[in-house]
Structures
1.
Amino acid sequence: MQNKISALKIIVLSFSVTFLASCAKQTEADIIADAQSCLDASTSSTVDACLSKVENLTSEGAYLIKCAGSFIKEGFNSSSKLSSALSGISSGSGSNSGSSSTSLIAGLAFTSKSSPSENASFANTTYDSCVKSKSSGLILLSGLSLTSTSLWSLGLSGSSTPPTQAQLESLMGTLANDATASATVGTAVVAMYESNCQSSNSAPGSICSQFTSAVSAVPGGISNPSAIGTQIMTCFSNNNAPGCTGF
């Protein structure tokens, strides 16, 4: 009789653990759905309340909320701001494709924080969330944002405004051989290239051809992100430099 009771306790306990685990998974799904609904109606001033719902979650869905929420925080849910920044993608062809790309990159700089270094830190956190979300489109946007915001912090830290297209191109030439800049930009390029430029669903315009050019031009390809960072910044600042195709 005692053995039967013990066996019954084990069965009940096992069922309880399984049931609770199932509830926990459903609860996370509910939290993410709630955060998404919150995000859909949010603005740059209200989005923090949505992000707080998933701050302790680490699933792809949670990181998608964190990533998208950061862009809303930056005001990119505004159709005018986003369309202005993305206009460079559709025009990124022909002899001025490099300039179209740097125009796009400059327009995606993060500006919501009080200093260039804080903006760069926020852009880096956002990029990390976007990579973990595995959304190719958001990896592309966050990688470009990280590029412009990091170069602003590294090269124009005394400026309260992000670099213009001309300033960004100049910064790329100045910082092409800077270890921090080349590693940051190169790592972002590799992530953007791998997620957007190796399938039939490649990003539109010239961005992918420029990434491919930079990856192909350096020894080791994607295993050498710092060299890729140096190469692509060199090409964006001087499209006649050796190995620069499609800039």
2.
Amino acid sequence: MSPSPRRRSRVLGIAAVGLLPVLGVAATSAAFTDAALLDLGAPGAGPGIGNPNVFDIAVEDEAGAYADAATEADAVVLSTAGSPVFSEDDPLALVVNIANRPSSASGDVVIELYDPDPGADDVFDVLRFDVYLAGSGTPAIAGATADEVNEAGLVLEGMTPAETRMVRLEVLLGETPAIPGSSTRIGLRGSGETR
């Protein structure tokens, strides 16, 4: 029995320019103790106000080193191999490895998508994302717009010091017509908070 003919994919000349992971950190938890005297002390030295532990997350760059990117302007650029093209039925796979540095505290990282280069010929808004967290074979969300991904509140929970987790995106061009020859970039933002 011969395999059934595969549906011909409509491929537009829409280039996938790159992925820009950005990691932001907000160490907002606070602790205090009751005492007869006020002794704030040095960070990590005991009683005091504030969280002495820093949550220090980073993203793996193309050379395999981990880099900080606290703002979108500092984003680590990860290019896609070859000449990637979006299509309606052949997903473009993109992988980002997020690490919690060894000297860091434990915490959670919220994953969000953003458009780093909005413009008239940009196709970011018609892309559909399947997002896989921490090596899972099942998407945490599938067929979603970037806004829907962000509204889903995807979290890498309980990242411990020296731990690395993978976020994999599979990206399809939505059925909304797009302009052939257009391009876009995809931004992935990880916002962390200590536990």
